[in-house]
What we know:
The complex is a heterodimer. Chain A is α/β, with parallel strands linked by helices. Chain A has helices at residues 18-21, 40-49, 90-93, 144-163, 165-172, 186-190, 241-250, 283-295, 317-328, 412-429, 435-444, 453-456, and strands at residues 27-35, 54-56, 75-78, 83-86, 105-112, 204-209, 224-228, 268-273, 280-281, 300-303, 332-336, 361-366, 389-392, 396-400, 405-409. Chain A contains twelve helices and 15 strands. In chain A, helix 9 links the parallel strand 10 (300-303) and strand 11. In chain A, helix 4 (144-163) packs across helix 5, helix 8 (283-295) packs parallel to helix 9 (317-328) and helix 10 (412-429) packs across helix 11 (435-444). The longest helix of chain A has 20 residues, at 144-163. Chain A is globular and about 70 Å long. Chain B is an alpha+beta fold. Chain B is elongated, with a radius of gyration of 15 Å. The termini of chain B are far apart. The model of chain B has no long low-confidence stretch (mean pLDDT 96). The interface between A and B is large, with 41 and 30 residues.
Amino acid sequence: MSKVPxxxxxxxxxxxxxxxxxxxSNTTGRFIVTFREGAENEAAAALSGFGLQVASSNDxxxxxxxxxxxxxxxxxxxxxxxxxxxxxxxxxxxxxxxLGEASPILSVEPERYAYALAAPAPIPTEEPAPEAxxxxxxxxxxSAAAYIRGYAxxxxxxxxxxxxxxSAAAAAAPVAQAWNESQxxxxxxxxxxxxxxxxxxxxxxAVLDTGFDLQHPDFVGRSITATSFVPGQTAQDGHGHGxxxxxxxxxxxxxxxxxxxxxxxxxxxxxxxxxxxxxxxxDGWILAGINWAVANGCPVISMSLGRAVAPGEPPPIAxxxxxxxxxxxxxxxxxxxxxxxxxxxxxxxxxxxxxxCPSIMAVGAVDENFRIANFSNRTINANGGEVNLxxxxxxxxxxxxxxxxxxxxxxxxxxxxxxxGIAALYAQSSPLLRGAALWLRLQATARMxxxxxxxxxxxxxxxx
Amino acid sequence: xxxTSYFVSVAxxxxxxxxxxxxxxxxxxxxxxxNAIGLIEIEADEDSANxxxxxxxxxxxxxxxxxxxxxxxxxxxQ
Lengths: 464, 78
């Protein structure tokens, strides 16, 4: 292939100097070109104009990008995330100059190896944080999912370092407020669900939990496919946990008794009972439930379950195998980060299993004042043990088996279905938003809070 | 030796059915074929499970964890 000099033209509107663009030991030798939102066609034309062979992720089935395509193209467009990965000789990047504000190209920077955010990361202070060490190199043979996530983490790490994240996040973060829950739960308001034009219509949402109260009056007429993987027990919820979590993810827009508490009110509910009526479950039941949800093509799989792990403990291989296969089939698994912490007493525990798998999205919990919940676990372990997002997880009102009908509960179990329901809204908005692309969209639209990255990941999930 | 649950991860480039057959031919007691997610649950003692690691198409053999236990329904934190 011809490596064409990007002579004199592609440029950075964001003061990226040529010196900065010189690859270092942290960089891959390739470059990331960020283009203006919606300007992918113009950006592709600009890159072609410099003699580059341009390929696009849209050329691949279901956006499952084969990064080996870069061996036959000079530039790979990733319109889902607004960037192109460009191979060009570094010395030619030095000669780039500004195209001006009308350019579809916003910036050019060296591609970096993936960073894990795990690092018992410094709590942001007024001092600029040292850049996190690269703990593992990017494996180009790995899935596009891993690639995109790794790159996103690197960008996030860099951005926070450069912007001195504590003050930046604090300035932009929402402030505590008194919520009026007469019409809508605080969690729906905080995640901007009411403003969404989407309802999850037609999207299969699997909730793997203790089952569901199949006679609950708020769900009369809903499409519910229920299966039990617990020997000797039906999918009917004899615990309550599953009815509460499924209610948050999928509950109705206009329940007879207000407030509204559910997100994806027109989604297709797939209830997999994987925990028995005492709230316990084996890996065999849980993995059978995941297999069922994936075989049924559920783009969203919500798992408010997990077990504690020790610092340094690696993620379970079987769940990672399951989750990677699920992602490759367009199914995103979203799991609770766990409640083993007791921050008021100085106890902070790592994200539990299976949320600690690299291919499973881990969800922590925040309270009504946008503080991290006392019990919510933290990013302590590497290689998947990161908190990816947070959701409303304190004093969460949702459905509960009759005759109670409703209950307020707290936990990362309650935060998780907020993310799952919102994932269904995004999935409805585009058939391309599946698997890794859906993961990325959830992170890209999240709202940073004024709390440490190790606790909030990319921040509070947002529906719009 | 006591027999317990193990999960066999099928390698990404391997054919699921051939790995499942190979496990059975090797005498494994297969409990579940989870073919949508590349896993096979078997019941085996530790020595037998270790021997299966060398079969073609087997990426990993991992013992089942103790599993999950939620708090009781009346616990405020779930």
